[in-house]
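Please check this:
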Amino acid sequence: MEMLTSIKPNRVHAELARPLIRRLASAIGHVVHMGVLEGDMTTYLVKEGHVEDAPLTHEDMQLESYCSGIGKVLLAYLSDADRERYLSGGPFVRLTQNTIVDPGELREHLQTVRAVGYAIDDREIAPDLCCLAVPILQPDRSATLALSVSSIDQGKLEKSREGLLRKLTHTSKQIAHRLSD
């Protein structure tokens, strides 16, 4: 029992989801991440995919939530009170010319993310990195985990956005089912 209490739920989630994420990364030829909010930061729990344009990320790496695809999805799915607490906690640093740093603009952006069900990081965290992210929804429609596909080739990602979103959403549903069993 003592050993079981030392196992972190996020590690269990990562290992249960990893085979599905690996399969997706292989099928689409991009890097796929799964992440979670920890405090105000986004932590990558899983990174799969070995392609030439792989972003310089690694598992357990933390990124600012307001400018990463996974972070924006998870912020969008917070309760209104928790999202407002986050937005009032700035300042938000401009990492690239595309980074949203105004809390009001970010609030509106997160409302759009929630409405459409996905986020785009359009070179907001790094000038050559783009990603699409979707929530991994729990039965109550909340999201504490999210999945993203990343590339340094914005044109390639944009050209295949709809197909990638379908595949990301399908895999996120598979992960949600696996985690609920």
User: Anything to note?
Assistant: The radius of gyration is 16 Å. The chain is about 45% helix and 20% strand.
